[in-house]
């Protein structure tokens, strides 16, 4: 497929604020006759297995912060404690020890009335099995939370219609849940949570009951909705690919403990222990890693004001047949080839802009590697990685891309060579520079 000139691939990931929406500090949840004793023993250094005769330690010393506007994914296998954790975040289960703060409210120990107020105004939840009211229509299910809040019927139905449109259920407002597919029912559940207009949205295995294709559609729609609405989302899943697709950051749980928190790339490329490494070994790296994670410094780089001679010296020194060209402000312009630069130097020309080729591929740093394969195959040049102001951040040679996709370490201790290699020998370049040097410059 032909790619237009200077195509930019990928959409920059949203910018998160530094405001903390949810904070969990040293959370424990123990089940048994003596839950406080379980916590005491764990704090003294006993393992989960060693205190099993006292009961079950479902969550052990969990601490994390979720920023406003972030999708924070809690991932783990069955029995890891992730669902118990999320139920403590909205007070469905009291923490045995530790605290949960939603916004400015510490929900530990608050009265029932205060907790209900927090749920109405600050945090809503989407369950795995939809939890729809079967005798109510789609629009009434979506508006149910607004009804609980005391909003008038006209107002809540108007708002519910807007939400129904957002979640892609136009034309289904008057249907009953029994008339909908599983994916559509989950859209209703999501719509009901969105209609409540709380700052924080908790989602417990919300898509796990759906067929794979429908599940992917819901994941994509959730990302789109989050980008539009800016909600803070805490998403529970046992599916690693789902976690990698959705999460700004991921908390990996095992046996009640959080063993690592990081971005998808950090989890994939720098696992905290053998458990996490084994967990992520089958992940599709091409869809998780981004251009920023594999790019290298641009070495054969010249500026428009440097002229052909400076460009030829740079290409000679790095033994490459092309160089990346930047404007004075650092913005990426295109590339120049060694043969064209050599002709300019021999002709005594001083304007490099005459030979700049503007067909180099440039991508944003957030572009997934899967989107780089085709342009890398089609272009002999390394791919340029640029920011929103077109400033060159780095480059991705084809060999680097292939190594990243194959999980091969390319760090050999030597400088990488930007493809393709020079088509003109260094001796020819040096001779040309000497022959055309009228000012006795050091070459």
Automatic annotation (TrEMBL):
One GO MF term attached to the UniProt entry: ATP hydrolysis activity
GO cellular component term of the entry, any: membrane
SUPFAM superfamilies: CBS-domain pair, P-loop containing nucleoside triphosphate hydrolases
Annotated keywords: Amino-acid transport, ATP-binding, CBS domain, Nucleotide-binding, Transport
Family matches, as Gene3D superfamilies: CBS-domain (3.10.580.10), P-loop containing nucleotide triphosphate hydrolases (3.40.50.300)
UniProt keyword Transport present: yes
GO BP, sorted A to Z: amino acid transport; glycine betaine transport; response to osmotic stress
CDD domains in the record: ABC_Pro_Gly_Betaine
NCBIfam families noted in UniProt: proV (TIGR01186)
Similarity annotation: Belongs to the ABC transporter superfamily.
This protein's name: Glycine betaine/L-proline ABC transporter ATP-binding protein
């Amino acid at each position: 497929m032909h790619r237009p000139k200077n195509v930019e691939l990928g959409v920059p990931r949203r910018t998160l604020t530094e405001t903390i929406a949810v904070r969990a500090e040293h959370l424990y949840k123990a089940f048994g006759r003596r839950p406080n004793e379980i916590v005491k023993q764990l704090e003294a250094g006993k393992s989960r297995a060693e205190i099993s005769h006292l009961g079950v330690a479902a969550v052990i010393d969990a601490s994390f912060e979720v920023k406003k506007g972030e999708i924070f994914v809690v991932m783990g296998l069955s029995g890891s404690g992730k669902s118990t954790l999320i139920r403590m975040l909205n007070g469905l289960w009291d923490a045995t020890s530790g605290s949960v703060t939603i916004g400015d409210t510490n929900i530990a120990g608050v009265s029932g009335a205060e907790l209900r107020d927090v749920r109405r105004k600050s945090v809503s939840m989407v369950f795995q099995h939809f939890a729809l009211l079967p005798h109510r229509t789609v629009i009434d299910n979506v508006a149910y939370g607004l009804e609980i809040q005391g909003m008038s019927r006209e107002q809540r139905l108007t708002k519910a219609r807007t939400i129904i449109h957002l979640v892609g259920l136009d034309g289904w407002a008057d249907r009953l849940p029994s008339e909908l597919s599983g994916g559509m029912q989950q859209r209703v559940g999501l719509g009901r949570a969105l209609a409540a207009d709380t700052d924080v949205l908790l989602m417990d295995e919300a898509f796990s009951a759906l067929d794979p294709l429908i599940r992917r559609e819901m994941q994509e729609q959730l990302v789109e909705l989050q980008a539009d609405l800016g909600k803070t989302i805490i998403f529970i899943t046992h599916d690693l690919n789902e976690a990698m697709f959705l999460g700004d950051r991921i908390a990996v749980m095992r046996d009640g403990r959080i063993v690592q928190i990081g971005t998808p790339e950090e989890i994939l490329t720098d696992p905290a222990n053998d458990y996490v490494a084994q967990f992520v070994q089958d992940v599709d790296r091409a869809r998780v890693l981004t251009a920023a994670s594999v790019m290298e410094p641009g070495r054969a780089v010249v500026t428009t004001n440097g002229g052909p001679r400076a460009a030829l010296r740079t290409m000679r020194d790095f033994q490459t047949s092309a160089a990346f060209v930047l404007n004075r402000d650092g913005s990426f312009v295109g590339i120049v080839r060694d043969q064209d630069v050599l002709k300019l130097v021999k002709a005594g020309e001083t304007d490099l802009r005459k030979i700049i080729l503007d067909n180099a591929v440039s991508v944003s740093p957030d572009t997934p590697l899967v989107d780089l394969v085709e342009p890398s195959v089609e272009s002999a040049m390394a791919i340029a990685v640029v920011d929103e102001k077109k400033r060159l951040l780095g480059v991705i040679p084809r060999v680097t891309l292939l190594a990243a996709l194959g999980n091969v370490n390319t760090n050999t201790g030597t400088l990488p060579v930007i493809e393709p290699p020079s088509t003109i020998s260094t001796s020819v370049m040096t001779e040309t520079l000497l022959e055309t040097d009228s000012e006795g410059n050091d070459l």
